[in-house]
Amino acid sequence: DVTSGEENTRITPGGGVNMTGSRIRIDGEGKSVGISLTHQESGEVVTIPMNTVLINDPSKISFVAPANLPAGDYKLSLTTQFSSTNIKLKEPRTFTFDYILNVA
């Protein structure tokens, strides 16, 4: 969370979020490709629009969290068809981060 400076604990609505990893670039045409936040109590899924993704590199993604994101606990998921070669993966792969992120 760029606004608070906290790592792996919170998301500030309307604030920036940085993600780092390996082969995490958002790439592919599948419907599920992209970033989503799942509200842990209601199960509601919030999809992060690609026009709010500021950096989309193989090892770093930065995006702006929705300003109207309801309070609660969320799990962050990233789905991509990116691979380290020039050929995209046939099927999207999803990684759900271990941490629960809180929106106050």
Give an overview of the whole structure.
The radius of gyration is 13 Å and the shape is globular. The two termini are 13 Å apart. It contains no helices and seven strands. It is mainly β and 104 residues long. A hairpin with a 3-residue loop joins strand 4 (53-56) and strand 5 (60-64). Helix content is 0%, strand content 42%. It has strands at residues 16-20, 34-39, 45-48, 53-56, 60-64, 72-80, 93-103. Strands 3-2-6-7 form a four-stranded antiparallel sheet, with no helix packed on it. A three-stranded antiparallel sheet has the order 1-5-4, with no helix packed on it. The model has no long low-confidence stretch (mean pLDDT 93).
Sum this structure up briefly.
With 104 residues, this protein is an all-beta fold. It has no helices and 7 strands. The protein has a 4-stranded antiparallel beta sheet with strand order 3-2-6-7, with no helix packed on it. Strands 1-5-4 form a 3-stranded antiparallel beta sheet, with no helix packed on it.
Distance between the termini: 13 Å
| Helical stretch tally | 0
Overall number of strands: 7
Series of secondary-structure elements, N-terminal to C-terminal: EEEEEEE
Spatial arrangement of strands, main beta sheet: 3-2-6-7
Stretches where pLDDT is under 50 for at least 5 consecutive residues are none
Mean pLDDT: 93
Q: Give the overall silhouette.
A: globular
